[in-house]
Structure formats: C-alpha cells, structure tokens
What does this fold into?
Amino acid sequence: MSTKTRKTCRALLLALSGLMLLGSAAEPAWAGERQDGYNYSAWGKAVPAPAAYEASSLVNGGEAGGAAFKEPSDLQAAQGGKVYVLDSGNNRIVVLDADFKPIRTIEGFEREGQKETFDNPQGFYVSESGEIFVADTGHARVVHLDEDGKLVKIVEKPKSELLAADFAFKPLKVVADRSGRVYVMAEGVFDGFMEFGSDGVFTSFIGANRVEVDPAEYLWKRLATREQRSRMVMFTPTEFTGFDIDGEGFIYAASASRNGQPIKKLNAQGADILRRGGYYRPQGDLLYDNAKGPSRLIDIDVGDSDMYSVLDAKTGRVFTYNGDGYLLYVFGELGNRIGQFDTPIAIERVGDRMLVLDRALGEITVFGETEYGRTLNEATRSYYAGDEERAAELFERTASLNANLDYAYAGIGKALLRQDDYKQSAEYFKRSMDREGYSKAFLLHRKELMREYFSWIMSGLVLAAIAFVVTRAVRRRKGRAVYARIK
Amino acid sequence: MLASSRQAARHPLHVIFHPFEGFWELKYEQSPRKARNTALVILALLAITTVLKAQYSGFLVNMNNPTELNSLMEIVYVLVPVMFWCTANWSLTTLMDGEGKFSEIFASTCFALVPLVLIQFPWIWLSQGIALEELSFYRFFNALAAAWSLYLLFVGNMTVHQFTPGKTILTMFLTVVAMGFMAFLCLLFFSLIQQITSFVYTIYQELALRG
It folds into this structure.
C-alpha cells in the first residue's frame, strides 16, 4: 500500500468516524440508519447494506371517510404527485393527492348516454397527461378515458386471423405509449403482448417469451406414446406477469421465467434490449433455497434515469436496478409489521417515495428514501445525466455509507479516469471488479509510465546489449587462449 | 555436483523438445531413482506455480476470489488429478499389455507437465502488465502449453507402454473414464465413512447420556 492510499484510507476512516459522531447529533437519518438491507457483491455473495428505503405510513383509502380499498390490484403515479389506485373489489378507480388523501373516484363512464361500470378490472395505466386505460377484465375490454373520466374509446375483443376462433379476450394489464398505441397483456396469450393502434384496432403481437423446456420432462414426453402425450401439459412459453412503459416508449416486462430472462426491455419491434452489464443478470434474488425456488417477479416499475424496480411476490422484496443492470438496493419483506406485506401486487415510484400495494390487506405502504437511498439515487441520476464529477462525489459518499457496494467504486474510477489520475482510477475499478474499466485506466497508466521511464528503459537495453557483446568477445578470446595452450 | 545438477535441470527440457528420444531414455537409460526424483521436483514446481498463479496473476485474468483462496486446496487440485491419472493409467495398462511400470508412468506423466510450469512462470507476471486487448496472447500461450503437454503425455504413454498410436489414444480415453469411476468410488467411500462415524458417535452419545 502506497503512502498516498494509506493517507486516503486514514482520511476515509476519519470521515467515517466523524459521520458516526455527527449522525447521533445532527443528522437523524444517519443515526437511525437501519443496517438490515442487503445486496449482492461482485462475487455473488449476499452482503449487508444499509436500508435504502424505510416504511413511513400506510394508506388504505378509508382515511377521508370513504370506503377502504377492497382487493386493489394496481396503482399508478401521475402528474403532480397524484396516485391512482385501481380498487378492483369495489370496481372503481381512486385518485389520491400528493398527501394520499382521496380527491376523486371514478366508478364508471358514460357510453352513448348509458352509464357503464367496470367489472373486476385487473390492471390500468395512467399516461402523463392523465388519460386512463383500464383493463376491464370482466367485460373483456379495455376502456380508454380522458383526464376528466370521459370515454375516448373502447378496445373490444379483436378479430384477426392470428387469433383462434374461440379466443377469450381477458385483458389483465395495459400500457399505452405517447402516440396512443395500446399494449395489452391478456390471460392465456403466449405470443407476447397484444398491440393495438391508436384507433383501437389490433395490429400484432410483440415480445413473445421463448418456450422453456425442462430436460427431464422432455425425456418423459419423448418416451410417452402419442395418447399419453396428448394428455400431458403442453410446453408453452412463460407468460408475462407485469409491464410498464418508460418515457421513450420502451416496454419493461417482468415474467415468472425460471431459467430465461425474467426481466426484459422491449423496443418497438419486440426485441429485448435490456442491458445486462451488471455483475449478474437482473433476476431478483441470486441466492435462494431450493424448496422455495427463485424470485417470482410480478410487477415492474420503470422510473427516471432508466432505473427500474421489480417486485418479488415470493419474498415481498423490491429489487431496484440501474440502466446498466447493476443491483442498487433491495427492501421490503413479507410479515406483519409496517414495511412488510402479505400479498404485494404492485409497486410504483413517486418522486422520492416508493409505494407498494398489498392486495389482501388493501393497503399501500409508503416508503421514504433514507440518506443512503437518496445518495445512491442521486448518484445514479447524475451518472445517467453524464455529470460524472458530481456522480463520483455522490458515489464516494455512498461508499462511505456502504463499503460493500462494489458498484460505487466504478463510479469513482470513471471520474478519476476523466481527471487523468489513471493509477488511482485503475485501483478503484479493480475494487469494483470492473475489468473493462480497469483495462482502460491501466492502459493509460502504462503508457504514462512508459513515457516517464522511456530513457531509463532504453539506456538499460543499450547497456545490456553492450554487456552481452563484450562478454561474448572476452569469452571467445579466453576460449581461444585455452585452446592455444592445449595445442 | 554442479555439472550433474545442471544436467538434471536440462534433462526435462531435452525431453520436452525431443519427446520420442527423451522418453526412451527415461525408460531404458536413466536410473529409476533419478527419474523419480526429477519427476517429484517437477510436480512440486507445478504445485507452486499453480498457487502463485492463483495468487499473483493480473487482475484481468485472475478470476479467483482472494478471500476464498486456499493454497493447500490449490496444491491438492494439482496432486490429486496427477495421482488419479497415474493410478488409472497403471490399472488399465496392466490389463492391456502395457510395458510400463508405475514409476515409469509417474515419471513420464510429470515430465509431460513441464510446459505448464514453463509457460506459467513468465505469464504470471506478464499478466499483470496486459490490458484486455492483449488478453488473446495470454490465452494463446496457455492453450499452446496445454496442447504441448497433451502431446507429451501422448508420446510418453506410447513410449512407456510400447503401444501403437491408436491404442495409446484409446488408453488415454479409457484412463479418463477410469478417473471418473475412481472419483465416484472415493466419494462413495468418504460419504459412507462419514455415515458410519456419525452412526457410531450417535450410539456413543445415546449411551453416554443415558448412563
């Protein structure tokens, strides 16, 4: 360890102890920092981490004297901090303001003078301008309302040669892009999402999952007779479980895929363009016991700066990744205390808060950022925006709050690389196990060294060459002398 | 003394560059004791190189988690396969009319491993000075060493047992299969021993707690 690194180490330690002292007096966020979170290290080990989010309150819709939520199944954030809750059990949509007070309910809509209602709607989408798309599952249709709750159009069961004659249209979830195209996730559809044009006409399927075949099951099927085979379950592609759309129109989709890619980012052609540049592919929990099996992701929410969160129904954990595919933080679990869920069904990021909707309890748990979560989020945002200086500063603070976050060191390394401190940069990249970054910094460092010591290296080489020639000449002469003496 | 130690160091190099001649000398002309000692030194060197490689290779090529690195295990990973190979090979070739004795098989196997030692030594340190772009050189030299060792193993086997090339390839293949069997039997043996000891211990505990 060079004196310089030792010095920085000491400075870091000093800063850390300073933080601890400060934390108890000035900054309650540090003092109260719960250390019960975890993350996965570059080596794939579960390592402790500070909590990035903490539950602050519960919302059940009945606060202002209205009816409480009954089996709600989806929630969406909209402009001005408003939150829309799809209260499936009561067949209505509840609009909450930024303080989670109910300000409006949408029980139905008017269609050609007739009042119509929803029947057990399972999913909905609220666009930036406040337009609402409801997957009215019981009525086999998707209802498009404008921001005032007036009917714009209705998407009914499509007629297409791509669909079987006895096809039953059961929309579960829906999103819409800016140009008004509607994407529907329907029950029993294995060909991907159903895409409808802005006029409500079915155009095509996009983003089908592949069939995953269990080898043992495949062998059984091969050995079975045709009659037996016909009674077996068919191999079908994994169904999607949830999806969301980002500002650029890319669809983020979660599925209960065991071996494939449980998280996908689909472009307009349905190709998966999710970046998987992290230490391992985004998939929820990396380590799990075999009896329980891997994470079952049931909802996905894409926030700003390409950050996205997925909800694992099995453990009640929310995993948040950045656009490169690095796991940032994990929070939430199943249980009975605040911050724990019974049957989590949907998540939504609203500004610096995360909302988790519980279906059975009919509650929204509101999570607020901790100091650690805020720093990490800000660092990710700055990095995404290209402000590497500020990102490095924030990553440094993140690393001082959580030395186990290997990813943070790469952020510091990148900034140092830009500041031409190649040696330090390489060290940081090494610490974050970023081989590509390390190689880049190391190459520049090597070039620098070469330039600095070029004269020494060259004189050394020349001297060595001269020494070699001289010794050879001396030896030869000696040998000749010996030879002459023998003669 | 100096001359003989220099010769001892040169002999393996002679073998790897002139395998047919070298292995012939190893079998018929050199004293078995000397051959065995050289072989043991080569094996020890390989074990040391493996440990050094795991510990000191450059960051870009070193995939080992330094917190979980165990030098003793690294040595075991070298010794056990070599011993398994020799045992399996000896067991098979005795049945297949091979002329090699166990000591000859061991010596020829160890001599065949020399390229692995030779290539590692510069590359452990060179790998610290390379970037991702130069990684293909590293891979190439490693692959070259492995191929060379395999070739030497083949020639060594052929010479020691006086087999035809076809039969040698067959024997080598069967040796690998036999190694698999041996690994399986070892596992079975150890797990049974474990069960027996735990059984005996449980009985002891039962008696001790009741009495």
Remarks:
- The CA atoms of residues 20 and 155 of chain B lie 7 Å apart.
